[in-house]
Amino acid sequence: MYHLTPIQAMFLVAFLAILFMVRGTKRGGKKLMDRMEDTNPELKSAKEWGYTSIYYWEMKRHDMMFRDGQWLPMYIENDLKNPYLIEQMRKKDLVLDRYNHWVFTGKTLEKLRNLKALYWQQPIKRNK
Question: For the segment 28-86, what is each residue's pLDDT rounded down to a tens digit?
């Protein structure tokens, strides 16, 4: 039979405690995100359209809101011919794509690419 020394037992208990705390934090974070999704219909709608929660929060940080399947500026009227609006959005790393939807560019786009948070980087969910 093998007996642990007090130092070995202390390291084993510390290792197991850290392991269970990490696992519990992951589960708690997942439950928190689900709860936030239930209380925030805008996030739920964006997820239904295929946007990730990281992308959603990045857009919120850049003062954008999700309505009717597209991202719109929060405090400025969405007049696409207004040069002031286009200039303000460029300062926020946002440009119009060929479909006249606001998309990220520059460092923000690279950051989202590295996090695999863009809609086309997500795995396809198939119904069984």
Answer: 767 766 676 667 888 888 888 888 888 888 999 999 999 888 899 988 888 888 899 99
Measured CA to CA, the distance from residue 100 to residue 119 in angstroms comes to: 17
State how far the Cα of 69 lies from the Cα of 83, in Å rounded to an integer. 24
Q: Which residue has the tokens 């794509």?
A: 97
**CA–CA separation, 98 and 70 (whole Å):** 14
The predicted pLDDT at position 127 comes to: 63
Q: Would the pTM count as exceeding 0.70?
A: no
From the list 90, 21, 30, 92, the residue with the least C-alpha distance to 82 is 90
Q: Token pair for residue 95?
A: 């440009």
Alpha helical stretches, state H, the chain: 6-39, 41-48, 53-61, 83-91, 106-114
Q: Which residue has the tokens 């929660």?
A: 53
Distance, in Å, from the CA atom of 25 to the CA atom of 127, rounded to the nearest integer, reads 29
Could you tell me the CA-to-CA distances from 34 to 40, 56, 59, 115, 123 in Å, in that order? 10, 14, 19, 20, 19
According to the model, what pLDDT value does residue 124 have? 67
